[in-house]
Amino acid sequence: MKNVALVTTGILPVPAVRGGAVETFSTFLLELLNATGRYQTDVFTCADERLDDYFYENARLLQLSYNNMDKFKEKWTGRIRRRLNIRMGYEAFHYAFRRCFDQKKYDLVIFENCMRNICAVERKSREGVWVYHANNDLETFIGDKSVLNLKNVAGKCDIILTCSNYIKNRFQPYTGECCIETYYNALDIDSYNCKASDDVNLRDRYRIPDTDFVFLFSGRITPEKGILETIQAFSKLSKDSARLVIVGNLEDNIVGDTSYAKRVKEAALEENVKERITLTGWIEPEEMPYLYKMSDCVIVPSQWEEPFGMVVTEGMIMGKPMIVTKSGGIPEIVDESCAFVVERGETGVSQITDGMRMLMEDRERAYEMGHNGYKRVMMHKEWQKEYYLENFFGILDRNGLSI
Prior knowledge:
Elements: E1 2-7, H1 21-36, E2 39-46, E3 59-64, H2 68-84, H3 92-101, E4 108-112, H4 115-119, E5 129-134, H5 147-156, E6 159-162, H6 165-171, E7 179-182, H7 198-205, E8 213-218, H8 227-235, E9 242-247, H9 259-268, E10 277-281, H10 288-294, E11 297-300, H11 310-317, E12 322-325, H12 330-333, E13 339-342, H13 345-361, H14 363-379, H15 388-398
Parallel strand pairs: 1-2, 1-4, 2-3, 4-5, 5-6, 6-7, 8-9, 8-11, 9-10, 11-12, 12-13
Helix pairs in contact: 2-3, 7-10, 8-9, 8-13, 11-14
């Protein structure tokens, strides 16, 4: 058996017992590698009590624990970073990972979306294949995805895989002779099969009449996700039969800024929309297919360059017409047969309203767009979990990196 190291970000555990998009993709790889019976996989993950319930025949979950020296280094580098206003640096996970990683040789090492993990270790030989799998755009010169770190990664890795052509094009000027290929994020299609009757139950829960046209937003409640722009667009609809359902945690912002969530709440409680907007709060991932099923249209109004856009493929596989912004990797997923692609900013607000109005007034077109989106996902095997590992090794083979 070949020895494989799957190096997680160290932020959330793998398997993805606490959620996380990148952690979900890492879990896909873990499960698929294990199922082949050809690889022995070591998963380097942060510790979590929920992982104690998981067992894989051909994989080990290495829950990294931190000693006092790791914590000491983290503490003092943290103080230096704050003093110099540097946002990213090594943490206890990286020190523990380096200590554990150096004890064994691997035929394949997959680093998931954290450049600092690669920067923390030395590549002592060219034996084995090192892969960096990127799911985020470049950041400032002091961020994890900085140009400086990317150059370090390109020097150590045999290939860089990016979640979209957009990210590939952003990275390419800094990767030198290192191979770089697009490796799209995948969707577990089987998990989106839900009973037709369950959407009625959710409408009852949220007190939404069967005749209402439901627009769905799902995502982080942060400025780059564009929820305020969506509310502004929705407020211009005069029809009482329109409903906007907002799925997202308004109480716990991952960047520690609750002011934006407060503005979203205030906008949703404006007199002209408060009876037509539903704030669900956090929804467990396994319940999301039923939210999609309940909706008539999914809106992805990103105001930044979206690296890929999983909500887009999720909405499409559920047969929903899409309203999306022209950002990052999203235009690689949709076309005009299944989505209204709008601009960002103030121009986009009025375009979102136009798209909403058109779909409400022409339900036949809405159904056709949704059906086209479903067919589009089914046509693209690279977006499906079933082919996720096959695509991975196919890319390695094309670049002479077979193991």
